[in-house]
C-alpha cells in the first residue's frame, strides 16, 4: 500500500487492539506525539504552540500519532473529550500508551461511550493518508484490530 500521489490504493491494516470499539472518520496523521493535558483544548483543538499540527481539530477524526506524550492528566482530559463528544473518533498509535487507554476505559465505565484505540506498526501508521477515510474495528484488548483505509 503506497500513499504517494495518485498511486494510493485502499487496503486493510491489521494491528493490536488496546481498547475495544468501532468508529470511522477522516484521518488526521500527526507528525509528533501529543499530550492531551495542555496540548488539546476543550473543543478538541491542538493548542500546543510547539506541535506541528497546532490549530488542527481532533474532534471526530481517526487520530494517528506515534504515541501520546506525557502527563497522567491526559487520561482525564481524554475522558472528558469523549463525554462531551469532542474526542477523536479513534486513536491509532505506533507505541502503546497506557495513559490514553486509561482515559478511554474511564469514559467507557462512567459514560458508556467506547472509543477504539489500536496499535499499528510504525510503517503502517506512516502510510495512512492524511485526510483519507478510515474505519477502525478494535476487539478486546490485546486482540486483533483492523483499519480499513480509503484514500483522500
From TrEMBL:
GO terms for molecular function: lyase activity. It holds the Pfam family AcnX_swivel_put. Residues 34-112 form the Phosphomevalonate dehydratase small subunit-like domain. Coiled coil: none annotated. SUPFAM superfamilies: LeuD/IlvD-like. Gene3D superfamilies: Phosphohistidine domain. This is Predicted aconitase subunit 2. The lineage of its organism: Bacteria, Bacillati, Actinomycetota, Actinomycetes, Geodermatophilales.
Amino acid at each position: 500500500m503506497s500513499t504517494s500521489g495518485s498511486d494510493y490504493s485502499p487496503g486493510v491494516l491489521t494491528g493490536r487492539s488496546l481498547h475495544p470499539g468501532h468508529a470511522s472518520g477522516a484521518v488526521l496523521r500527526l507528525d509528533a506525539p501529543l499530550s492531551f493535558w495542555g496540548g488539546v483544548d476543550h473543543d478538541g483543538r491542538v493548542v500546543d504552540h510547539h506541535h506541528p499540527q497546532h490549530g488542527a481539530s481532533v474532534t471526530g477524526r481517526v487520530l494517528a500519532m506515534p504515541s501520546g506524550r506525557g502527563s497522567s492528566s491526559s487520561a482525564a482530559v481524554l475522558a472528558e473529550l469523549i463525554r462531551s463528544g469532542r474526542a477523536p473518533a479513534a486513536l491509532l498509535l505506533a507505541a502503546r500508551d497506557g495513559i490514553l487507554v486509561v482515559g478511554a476505559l474511564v469514559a467507557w465505565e462512567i459514560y458508556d461511550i467506547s472509543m477504539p484505540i489500536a496499535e499499528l506498526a510504525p510503517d503502517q501508521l506512516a502510510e495512512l493518508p492524511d485526510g483519507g477515510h478510515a474505519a477502525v474495528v478494535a476487539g478486546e484488548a490485546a486482540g486483533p484490530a483492523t483499519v480499513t483505509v480509503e484514500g483522500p
